[in-house]
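pasting for ref
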Amino acid sequence: MIEKNLIKRIITSFVLISILFSMYISSMMMILAAIVISALSFYEFNRLIVKILKNTFLKFLSSGVILLYLFLFVFIIFWIESVKVENPNYKLFFFYAIFVSIGSDLGGYIFGNIFKGKKLTKISPNKTISGVIGAFIFSILIIPIFYNDLKFININLLFLATILISTISQFGDLSISFLKRLAKVKDTGNIFPGHGGVLDRIDGMLFAAPVGLFLLDYISIIK
């Protein structure tokens, strides 16, 4: 079972990486992917909130206010920063943050299933301390892959930024896991057969990618 789920997770990661590559080389693909991913994320998030909030009036509020919040957090932030993404350094670091998030997710899953150990939190019973360690290790392993292109950042600052991005990504994962627990559902959707919805796969990225861009601002200031 673990091997089967790991294969699915790796395949999904490769699909996401392929989409990211097409987004990196084509502005049109970036726009289309951002719109589609945002729309699907909004839809899945709203379904979770509706399941959590049984009251009809609260359902009405959730479908408006919560979606507006997500829109502001994901979509507007993305397009405000899109001016900076036209700068090669910002664009590269934006995608670097996403790859760190992917590495964090894979590392957490692999280490968590191999070493198991103490549970991290009741919010997500499958999350373990060993998984957190694995997430950080796999995130750090992304550094040498990108380092030649990220030489405009001091290696010590890049290391600290990577740890922070991984931490934010794991927080995003836990946040969606918390909502799924409240909604009493296993997955946010079924767009990936047998492997969940869009939010199940990009929960960490939704938090990590905007943080990555803001971090580059801060790094640029303190250099």
